[in-house]
Amino acid sequence: MDVIDAPSPNFDERTLPVSMLVLHYTGMESAEAAIARLRDPEAKVSAHYVVAEDGAVLRLVEEGKRAWHAGKSHWRGITDVNSASIGIEIVNPGHEFGYRPFPDEQIEAVIRLVADIKERHGLTRGNIVGHSDVAPARKRDPGELFPWGKLARLRLALPRPTRNLMDPHWTEAGFLLALERFGYEVTDPMAAIMAFQRRFRPELIDGEIDAECRMILLALLLPKPQGDD
Hints:
By secondary structure, the protein is α/β, with parallel strands linked by helices.
């Protein structure tokens, strides 16, 4: 895969081995503006890669370094997500500037990049996540239009469970406990529920715990979630 080097000064040293991959959208009006910000020393933000809408891939920070993409975040007990992750920014204006579907060429490039990173670092599907998964109270990216199912069918992300679903009839507290066990930070319960829905039930993001949400979460906690055929 061809990668264009566009170095950013915004990085430091890792204190953890790479065990995660975090997908973002740029959330700015243009790709040029997003790339400029990710390379601006005063902005103090960066990512390892940017994937343009035409599928071009830019490398801003070497994978061995700690890029500044996740901010205050948490996943499966890890609170320094930047140290433990590789960050990929996917060009899209986001919810503030006209959120739109991701072009096929772009998603194909994301898939190639994610597959390469997953193999080289031995990542598990459960640790390939969105920014909204690791920072539910602050972020919505890559959002409900991101085609997680395409990645899941290639074993590059967890699938949305669709088979042999059973309702555990958890209380709200029980659901939040299960959500925390799965990996989410639940100090803001509504945000955590909506982040879970945005990822695994994107057609209805209402923050309400219903039978479908309970069934999906229970299935995800099982050893081999099945779905996205």
